[in-house]
Amino acid sequence: MFRAFSGLHSLIIIILLAVLPTSSKAAAAITQEQLNLFAAHLDVKYRVLANLPADQCQSGVPCYRIQLDLTLPFDFSPTGWQVYLSQLDKLSFVSANDLDVELVNGDLKVLTPSPEFSGFKASIPHTVTLELKGNHYTEYKPLPNYYATASGLTPQIITATRELTDPHTGIGTLSHVATFTDPHRQFRTTPDDMTPWATATTLYANNRDLSETDEHIAQAIIPTPASYNLLNAQPADIRNGLHFIFDGFRREDVQPAIERLRALGVTSSAQGLPVTLIRSAAERFPDEAYSLRIEASGITINSATPAGAAYALASVTALLQLGDSTLPALSIADQPRFTYRGMHLDVARNFHSKSSVIELLDQMAAYKLNVLHLHLSDDEGWRVEIDGLPELTDIGGFRCHDLTEEHCLLPQLGSGPSRDTPVNGFYSKADFIDILRAADARHIEILPSFDMPGHARAAIKAMEARYRRYMAEGQPDLAKEYLLTDFNDKTAYRSIQNYNDNTINVCMPSAYRFVEKVVDELSELYQQAGLTMKKYHLGGDESPGAWLASPACQALLAERKKTNPQNLNLGGYFIERIANLLAQKNIVPAGWNDGLDHTEFDNMPARVQSHIWALLADNATQLTHKHLNQGWDVVLSLPEVSYFDMPHEAHPKERGYDWAARHINSRKVFSYMPENLPMHAEVWRNLHERPFSISDTPVKQPGRRVLGIQGHLWSETIRNEWQAQTMIFPRLIALAERAWHRADWEPGYAPDGKSYNQNTGYFSRAARTARDQAFNRFANTLAQKELLKLDALDVGYRIPTVGAQIDNGKLHINILLPGLPLEYRINGGVWQTYSGPVDVPEGVVEVRARSADNLRAGRSLLVSTSLVASGNAQ
């Protein structure tokens, strides 16, 4: 569609006649003006044709096929142009009559006219069919910002592929992506895939056991305290604010908690209700534990640590109901379930600003999370300034259209051709120190993560640029000092993300000098913030089969065969060396389980932190038990419950990756049982909604406990802060509940080990009922109390899509979070408030929820017998 053809018809015709050659003329090289018009008016339509099983794919593994239709509203014959586009997954087949598609690197592909191309004819599409490895289940897997360019011209983003924002919901949309219509071909891979499309009817059945209640709201605290008792006494009046009295603590120990109260309307005042914070002996209170007593005469807090005192104030804030000037009289004795209660944020793929990180820290502190695992480097970006290595951020911090990568990295993940975009950027040293101090003030540890030896393309390309700079200056020793590339290595490989140059050569001494330089400079930033870097996450995951043809590695392997012929795994060798380097500096090495599993246990330091990111339906239980039994600290990072970049619900209009889980809503996170992993085989299903089994082998040794759990946001499909918040919240609050509080319904491990599946029945009916009742209370508290606070603080969260059903002409609606405002409309009419079953005439009915403060709408769903039956509900 030529969107500009309306009132400006005559003007456009004049412009076209001026700058475009007629179809009768010979093709000519494109000019900047023509390129600008091409990008402004090229219509792109992206359609998912089908997900296919391996036997129907050119690659021999499961694949999907997409169709791109490119159309101009006018004849266009200039040549020499290219269209660059980001498309996730490995390309295995292309079908196009007169257009060529080739891989550049990573997800970046380039589309060019073939020798047979004779130009665009007005309104006649040119079609390209692509087959790529993997699956494609949502309309948010495609990436925006295709761009057109030509030699010597300034690249232009193709307007039709820009991401738009719905003004009513804040949801980003990709207008070039066609709506899914076929649940069998587009939403499933094989007949064995039983994933239900999350229609209004499906959600209504899922939510049937939930009901709205406010009986418990006044005394509800998230996360749930270890124990508390309501007092038979008058409530505390806070209409005049709070008056803080410090006995052994300083105001700065709890200042962020006080600021949160102030932001929610509870001021500090000499006339306010007294709040006495007493520092008690450590023997009375474990680390982070506290007691809290609220009476009409005042609030008393006891703790041995500033963190415990801050958490007590967080509980006061959790009791707060906006618009109510009283707090219930009660006493609490509380302490955390896990030492490690974390959130992982990927700022490498797409950048997140300092202010957004600090906002996340605020919310983590409010819900008593205490570690921010900050993923600061990957193939697509290096995000923190390192003194003495300016190329890391000058080049590695930006993506733009520079195929030589002299000034920036290649565009990836739909970043577009310009350096000037919010997905680019880095933290200066001062920024990072600010983040460290902000975290420390909130009793949160920053766990820095720099992924190596794979996932390291940003660092590799930056150090190659440094090499070229010093070689041009005639200083070869400096050029090679931190080089990560063996230029004589002829190894051909492709990483999981389709790079052929993203792995540090682990056989070069300069690679270890580089890592030590980064560690030392980062440690210095911690020291400048008044802190000590206690842990460092070295990554270690998904390292492809590089180095085989590297002369440096061949020499190292020959040497190692003489001393250690049983272990020639170079990836494991790298991790062992880095882990021991860190240990020598009194820094605990952390890494992903697959990289750590390449090491020899006897070669590793005494203390190691392993993050388990395997799937439960695969071998997560076995790896967890193995690493626990080795004496390592284990943090559960299970993707099917804690990767918040996965969709909230199984619906094509839900943002997110889908390789690990088709849906992770707050109820699933709430039902997580981190201290009995195999039990999930009784209550969860695998990626395709099929039953699976878990054998509790090797049996976890008595007394071994995981260090903790964490949520994760990987940022490949997250391009702004609003998107990040609506993927994180409210799931992070459910994760905090499980990290802080062990529920009575959670079963423990069987001491002798067992096998679990959908029929074993170890998770009793009574425990399931208790879990579901607990979630109903939690969900009501979220909807009626906590989300109002997020609204007041301008923190985004996903508003659930609602369930609905029409019975005998009456519309029934329910929701995952009872208490949120509900609406319906008929045949596109005015939205009406829903307060109970209502008569509806025949026609198309839409339903939706609104934010707790009623200012924002959620995504709507259709309720229509014919549409739902065909799987075509929106």
UniProtKB/TrEMBL annotation:
Residues 40-202 form the Chitobiase/beta-hexosaminidases N-terminal domain. It catalyses: Hydrolysis of terminal non-reducing N-acetyl-D-hexosamine residues in N-acetyl-beta-D-hexosaminides. Keywords: Glycosidase, Hydrolase, Signal. Its EC number is 3.2.1.52. Residues 1-28 form the signal peptide. It comes from the Bacteria. InterPro entries: Beta_hexosaminidase_sua/sub, CBM2/CBM3_carb-bd_dom_sf, CBM2_carb-bd_dom_sf, CHB/HEX_N_dom, CHB_C_dom, GH, Glyco_hydro_20_cat, Hex-like_dom2. Belongs to the glycosyl hydrolase 20 family. This is beta-N-acetylhexosaminidase. It comes from Alteromonas gilva.
